[in-house]
Amino acid sequence: MITQAVVNNNSITLVGIQTCLAEQGISRSVSTICRILKEESFSRKRLQKIPVERNSISNMDLRQNYCRMLSNLSDDRLICIDETEINLHTSPNFGYAPTGLTPRVYELANRGINISLLVAISLSGEVHFKIFDGSVNGEQFKEFLMELSQINANLSKVYIMDNARIHRSSVVSAFV
Fold it and tell me: Architecture of 69-90+111-175 per CATH?
């Protein structure tokens, strides 16, 4: 009964389970419910929230049409564009200390320098890349696209990007 309540609604709380049981005329303490769940190999974890719209029929149709369109293109026309950011001021987050003591490390409060990388890759390898100090903005991304367009001036290429904010900026939208 307890595990079934969790299977039916995995966001239910211990008190919620207790209430469901009470509605069935069963009285159990919260600690007993917790123990039973542990014995049944259930543990409390962070919920992964999935938007309902993600798997709507219209979105699935759009994805299917997108895949069909891409499959009709020759591989040499496809160029994937992505960005990544690297923080040069990284340090370990875990350490060792005797039981009861907290491991400490002293470091500068400065958060360090971020470096961003824009890269365009085709199935045959790297096409173009550019490194920036700090984060990339829409204007810099547009300039990257312009450089990429010049490299591929005589070729009919299809650029594939994710849904990052800079890809949708007004500057980039006006260029594309």
Answer: 2-Layer Sandwich (3.30)
When pLDDT is averaged across residues 75-101 and rounded to a whole number, the result is 86
Residue 139 near residue 118 (C-beta atoms within 8 A)? no
Model pTM? 0.61
> How much of the chain exceeds pLDDT 90, in percent?
41
What is the C-alpha separation between 90 and 77, in angstroms, rounded? Answer: 38
Q: What angle do CA 85, 133, 129 make, to 5 degrees?
A: 65
Judge residue 62's burial from the number of C-beta atoms within 10 Å of its C-beta, 0-12 exposed, 13-18 middle, 19 or more buried. Answer: exposed
Q: Which sign does the torsion angle of CA 137, 138, 144, 147 carry? A: negative
For 171, counting Cβ atoms within 10 Å of its Cβ (0-12 exposed, 13-18 middle, 19+ buried), the class is: middle
Write the pLDDT tens digit of every residue in 18-56.
999 999 999 999 999 999 999 999 988 888 888 888 889
- What is the H or E stretch that residue 129 is in? strand 125-133
77: pLDDT strictly greater than 80? yes
Cα–Cα distance for residue pair 108/43, rounded to 1 Å = 38
Cα(131)–Cα(94) distance, integer angstroms:
30
Domain spans of the chain, in order of start: 1-40, 69-90+111-175
Answer yes or no: is pLDDT of 173 > 90.
no
